[in-house]
Amino acid sequence: MCTVNYSIIRRSGSLKGGRPSAREASRFLLSSPVSVAAGRWNSLLMQFGQFIVHDISKTSILPTDQCPLCSDIPGKCFPIKVDPSDQRFGCQQPPCCLGFTRSAPVCGLQPRIRLNENTAFIDGSQIYSSSSLDAARLRDQQSAFLRQTFFNNKPFMPFDSNQCFGPGSCTANFDTGDNRVSIFVGLAALHTIFLREHNRLASDLRRLNPQWSDERVFQESRKIVGAQLQIVTSKFWLTKVLGSDEPLGPYKGYDPSVNPTIADEFANGAMRFGHGMVQEFFARVDAGGQSIPEGQMRVDTGVLQPQKLLFEGGPDAIVRGMMMTALKKPQRLTTALTENMFGTADLGAVNIQRGRDAGVPGYNTWREFCSLPRANSFDDLANEFPDPVLRNNLRQGYSHPDNVDLYVAALLEEPRGNSLVGPTIACLIRNQFKRIRDGDRFWYENPGVFTEQQLAELNKSTLARILCDNGDDFHLVVRDAFEVTDGQNLTPCQSIVSLDLRKWSD
Which residues does heme b bind (predicted)? Predict the structure, then answer.
């Protein structure tokens, strides 16, 4: 165990007043049964966002068994206080709490800094792992492929098929570069698609270059997958989130002075806005455009349920359904996440508490960081929070803008222009992804990483093409995979441009 000052927690904002418990803030400010569609985009945008976050950030959590319920142990346990009258999580014999375990610190550093288990770069850590030992386990040592398990003649991530006899008796766990893969079945679907993409590329590169070693084929395939993730993130995903055709500005090459480290305000604040885009229900659709027999899926029934990927339509049904499910506007959390997540948790409260655990400064600090005026009263925030009822609720809960948790503001700020998020959160997201890009000497556009001919091919990459190449039965797709469809604006896969891997032929 590290010998550091464990006590550094953001328990209060300013001297002007306190803050509500994380549960109360989530319950009265963030939780809402109302879902408002976010324009023309679909829920695959939400799911890809989670997939990318798991590439660049993973917080190590201290052992949960060391934190009995309501135990406030400095450095380890930071329980979320609950009002006894809370209909969902209250209790008859106070104190009432939701258990919460603190993040693990980097040893030897003060103030306390959380440990990120993944690399900060968009490099497929969630597929290949950031650990050399795990990476070796995930790779087929007899080929250039990632290991896979065939189930009903379809390739999936490795799992013990002897633990999966049917939809009601499946306890198998998928093995991939990030152990959060089964936290939601939509996430597992994207993991499956990109595992297949690596192996598809490896097969084609082997055919084009029989003289290459397995190691070279593997690494070149991984390099292409990493570039595809960077392209889909920067040219398709971020453009929607930030509402700009060039959200990070022009690329000027690798800058060794740029620190790409994932900031706490990003990982434990701004980027968690994505939970606000989660719908309560997701369609699941077959190749004919009809709902699968099992029907739509409520989000909490897709948590830690790997059998749904195997027995209920495979990755295609989930991805198609997300493409046909409108993206939820992220300015609130569905009650499926605040009242029913994991049965005994409120995801909004957990996110707020994680920001406090990390010592993330309050909302006003980040407004100043983003060159926005500091708010001296909640009336100063009429542009960010136009609803006077909301401003009054914030005033009652936090008493002063200095005290507002960054995550609460991240969900409540009103978007500007075509952005999905408010100005403060847009600033923090842009800052982080720009540092990830400019501080990565292996960024796909950096001269020398790929040849000019290869770069020209990679710039044709789309998520739509990746889905066409790796789905079980994908024949029709939206050209922009993040655009919502009612089944009418679909394009045949043969019309979606493919990478010409001959540019990788020696």
Answer: 275
Output the domain CATH number for residue 212: 1.10.640.10
E strand or H helix that includes residue 408: helix 406-412
Separation of alpha carbons 26 and 334, rounded Å = 11
- Rounded to the nearest angstrom, the gap between the alpha carbon of residue 30 and the centroid of all alpha carbons in its chain is 19
Q: How many other β-carbons are positioned within 10 Å of the β-carbon of residue 40? A: 13
pLDDT band at 182 (very low <50, low <70, confident <90, very high): very high
Q: Which amino acid is it at 432?
A: Q
How far apart (Å, rounded) are the C-alpha atoms in residues 221 and 216?
8
Give, as one character, the DSSP assignment of residue 30: I
Per-residue model confidence as pLDDT tens digits over 31-81: 999 999 988 999 999 999 999 999 999 998 888 778 888 889 888 999 999
Instruction: Decide if 355 is inside a domain.
Output: no
Q: Are 99 and 75 in contact (CB under 8 A)?
A: no
- Residue 136 in domain: yes
Cα(193)–Cα(232) distance, integer angstroms: 14
363, 376 Cβ separation under 8 angstroms = no
β-bridge pairing 31-32 and 333-334: parallel
pLDDT tens digits along 241-265 = 999 999 999 999 999 999 999 999 9
Torsion of CA 337, 342, 344, 349, to 10 degrees: -40
The fraction of the chain above a pLDDT of 70, given in percent, is 96
Name residue 441's amino acid: R
Query: Out of 54, 191, 198, 400, which one is annotated catalytic?
Result: 54
The pTM score is 0.94
Whether the Cβ atoms of residue 345 and residue 275 lie closer than 8 Å to each other: no
Distances (CA, A) of 179 to 60, 235, 322: 12, 27, 23
Token pair, residue 74, equals 């400095």
Whole-angstrom distance, CA of residue 42 vs CA of residue 323: 5
Q: Could you give the CA distance from residue 377 to residue 379 in angstroms, rounded to a whole number?
A: 5
275 belongs to an annotated ligand binding site: yes
248 conformational bin, left if phi > 0, alpha if psi -120 to 50, beta if neither: alpha
Q: What is the pLDDT of residue 342?
A: 66
User: Around Cβ 417, how many Cβ atoms within 10 Å?
Assistant: 9
Q: Is residue 46 part of a domain?
A: yes
Q: Is residue 37 part of a domain?
A: yes
Give 15's pLDDT tier (boundaries 50, 70, 90).
very low
* 54 is known as an active-site residue: yes
Q: Which domain holds residue 167?
A: 33-61+118-268+280-331+423-504
Which has the closest alpha carbon to 407: 373, 448, 362, 450? 362
Q: Which amino acid is at 439?
A: G
Q: How far apart are CA 216 and CA 238, in angstroms?
A: 31
Pick from 260, 283, 259, 263: nearest CA to 272:
263
CA dihedral for 41, 46, 48, 53, sign (positive or negative)? positive
